[in-house]
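Model it.
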Amino acid sequence: MSDVATPPAVPETPQPPRILIVDDQRNMRTTTALVLRQQGYQVSEAESGEVALSRLLAEPFDVVLTDLKMAPLDGLAVLRGALEVSPSTQVIVMTGYGTVESAVEAMQLGAYDYLSKPFKESELLLRVQRALEQRRLLVDVGLFSDEFRQRYKLDNLVGRSAPMRDLLTRLVRVSPTEVTVLITGESGTGKELIARAIHVNSKRSSRPFVPVNCAAISETLLESELFGHVKGAFTGAVKLRQGLLEEASGGTFFFDEIAETTPAFQAKLLRVIQEHEIRRVGDNASIPVDVRVIAATNQDLKKAIGEKRFREDLYYRLNVVPLHAPPLRERKEDIPLLAQHFISGFNQRNGTRRTLTQGALQKMAGYDFPGNVRELENMVEQAAALAHSEEIDAADVFIEAHTAAPGNPDTGVRTLAQEVDDAERRAIEAAMQRNDGQMEKVARDLDVSTTTLWRKMKRLGMRKE
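Modeled.
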């Protein structure tokens, strides 16, 4: 029997991306499908939410474009179903109402992007292309690989816990959009790092990122800094001065501790977001500004609204997409990763080769860190600076000893309030050392207002040396 030559393998032709279009308006659905088919996409159509869910269960799709206003199952039901079947499927919602508000809930539920009807063919194709790139990265690379982190410049947002996975998934979805973002979380959880990550992954990344801590500046100075002023607007205004919002044109403006502002200032900020314009202090002329607004707070803004300290209309303008920075006690599995990240940074800055032993990491992991990531960073740097050798052991990690609570000397148990007081005292003392006792800088470092800092120090029996 003679040998028969095996024919060369034919390379497998890559399958075109699969797209599902869901819309109860036939003309809109078929026109959109035609545009996408002309680009080589494999397109399926569904005339209702029910049909869409059946299709999603039966076959995989890379991208789903769904109208929001359908009955009885609307676009939000399609969105939930798509992400439940395949979390990597990218969903773009289409709304005929032309407002950001109509897409808010969809973005909060995990939609990749939205399109306001009527939209241009070029706009449709661009959004679909970006959605496919996002899916390809999630599927081929994996959400928390080094390549993913490098692609999205997430090196400073360390963690693989479920809360961090949720946060970063939402972050990469919202970054390419223009919507405002409200970041909530306790002090020390890295809210500014999150805001910076949004900026560098946005279309505005080549323009300025300007952060302002609203708690560290008086209202009068804050207005002058942000909006600028004309000559003679107030004592000392000897010449016209551009504000930071003008200087940040085309970029991203980050309002940290937004809850510390007054309702009067909030009204002016609302105008910036709604009208995209400002008025310099002492001037009646309006000046257009082009900035994306991101805000952050460690307070409960709904409670502040109830207490008339925060404007409800501004809250809804800011809270288009909420992101929550989880406290460290809710992601303890990230403590070793964070500690290694901080020791690596210490070594690079100081030319050392410090390492953390398993005992040191275990000691850190057993602590709740009321000061969150900032307190952990301080703890690691303190241990690295004072360690007797390159190897940092548990004995080098300083955690204030727990003593018996007053009135309960035999149990050795301390109340949560006492633990928090101790952590706050340590955090304030460390910030005082870092900032040479300059109270405004200390307050900015701790993400609180100067008034709040003085009040805490008085309650804790501390005084400025």
